[in-house]
Specification:
single chain; 60s Ribosomal Protein L30, Chain: A; 2 domains; 4 strands; 78% helix; elongated
């Protein structure tokens, strides 16, 4: 019975244990099922989230594709712009190189123009100084002639004084001889006054030495006067030689113009020939009129042929100057520019194809120059003593001789004489 109870208790134990285990298993299965359900719900939620995310990703991908297409278009446009910019940069570089070359050429041109302006300025200054020097030499020549006359008069006076001085010397010598005789007769008295006699002898000796010095000075003065006379004769010969050449050229010129029927006035002293500006140009204009061209074509062939082809004249000619002058109306620089342009227009016409006599003659080009003088040499009316505006507006043809340079020798000779 006890064993039965023990077996029964064991069976009840194992039944209870099995029930417990089954209950635990049921609880475990229930928890597993709940877990699965929860996981499935969360999985569905995650799937929904993933689907939404995938849709958003698809939309973003489409947007990205569109943006990529736009980026490619922008990139192509940027490449085109870069190519255009590179072409423009190359063109800009070529333009800059051309500008640099042009600036260099312009600098060289400016330098050459400045050099030419300096040369022209120096040439004008030389011509002006030579003209001033010539006028000054003429004045000096007049003064020297007056001085020569005064020297001749003073020389005559000195000669008379010298004759008087010689007579005085002779009388003094006679008186000295008489005094010496008196001295001999009064030797006794002189011995008593020996001291006083020695003083007189010293005074006499000094007087004789002074007389000798005066005679030497008179002789040296005569030599200086004779030397000055000889120098003045040489100077006169040189001036007459230069003026004689110019006079002969002016005479030839007058005869040739008269022979060719060219009616112009030639200055008998300088050989200058003037053309009124109204014949050649309009008012304040530097372009030659038809009337002016006709006048130049009639005048200049005779003038230039005489100066550059005549054997005697051509070897004396150093320069032909076309000189423009204006009236005092306006400022100096404006009139200087106008007078220079007018003189240059005449020279250009005489070297152009319009001048059919000898266009671009190298002999003429070597000696033909153009100068503008503004209003520095106006013409004064003799009656009113005022500036004649119409006559002051003119173009003057001048010629300069080679031997005029010898006037420097004359000036140095005159300076030596004046010293």
């Amino acid at each position: 019975m006890s064993s039965f109870k023990r077996n029964r208790a064991e069976e009840n134990y194992w039944v209870s244990f099995s029930d417990l285990m089954s209950g635990l298993l049921f609880v475990f299965i229930l928890l597993f099922v709940l877990t699965l359900v929860v996981n499935k719900v969360s999985l569905k939620q995650k799937e929904m989230v993933v689907m939404k995310t995938s849709e958003q990703l698809a939309k973003e991908k489409e947007k990205l594709i569109i943006e990529q297409k736009k980026y490619k278009q922008k990139t192509m446009e940027l490449l085109k712009i870069r190519l255009e910019l590179s072409d423009k940069e190359k063109a800009l570089l070529t333009v800059r190189e051309l500008q640099e070359k042009k600036s260099k050429e312009l600098g060289k041109t400016k330098e050459s123009l400045e050099n030419q302006e300096l040369e022209a300025k120096n040439l004008r200054q030389d011509i002006a100084s030579q003209l001033l020097e010539l006028n000054r030499l003429k004045e000096i020549q007049i003064l020297k002639d007056d001085q020569l006359k005064s020297l001749e008069i003073s020389l005559n006076k000195k000669q008379k004084e010298l004759d008087l001085l010689r007579k005085n010397l002779k009388t003094q010598a006679n008186s000295l001889a008489k005094n010496s005789e008196l001295l001999k007769s009064k030797e006794i008295q002189l011995l008593q006054s020996s001291l006083h006699l020695e003083d007189k002898e010293k005074a006499l000796n000094s007087l004789q030495s002074n007389l000798k010095n005066k005679e030497i000075q008179v002789f040296s003065l005569e030599e200086i006067v004779e030397k000055n006379k000889r120098e003045l004769v040489k100077v006169k010969q040189k001036v007459e030689e230069i003026l004689g050449v110019k006079k002969r050229i002016i005479t030839y010129m007058q005869a040739e113009f008269s022979k060719k029927g060219v009616n112009v006035f030639i200055d008998p002293l300088t050989g200058d020939i003037q053309f009124p500006a109204k014949i050649l140009f309009g008012y304040n204009d530097s372009h030659i009129k038809l009337e002016g061209k006709t006048a130049l074509l009639k005048f200049f062939p005779v003038y230039s042929k005489l100066l550059i082809e005549h054997g005697y004249i051509s070897r004396h000619i150093a320069e032909i100057i076309v000189e423009g002058h204006s009236d005092p109306e306006g400022d100096y620089l404006y009139n200087l520019n106008l007078s220079q342009k007018r003189a240059l227009s005449v020279v250009e016409f005489l070297n152009s194809q319009d001048y059919k006599e000898s266009p671009e003659d190298p002999r003429l080009q070597k000696i033909l120059t153009a100068n503008g003088r503004s209003f520095v040499n106006p013409i004064i009316d003799v009656k009113t003593k005022k500036v004649d505006y119409e006559k002051s507006r003119r173009v003057v043809f001048k010629f300069r001789l080679k031997n005029e340079l010898r006037l420097n020798d004359i000036r140095s000779s005159l300076e030596e004489i004046s010293q």
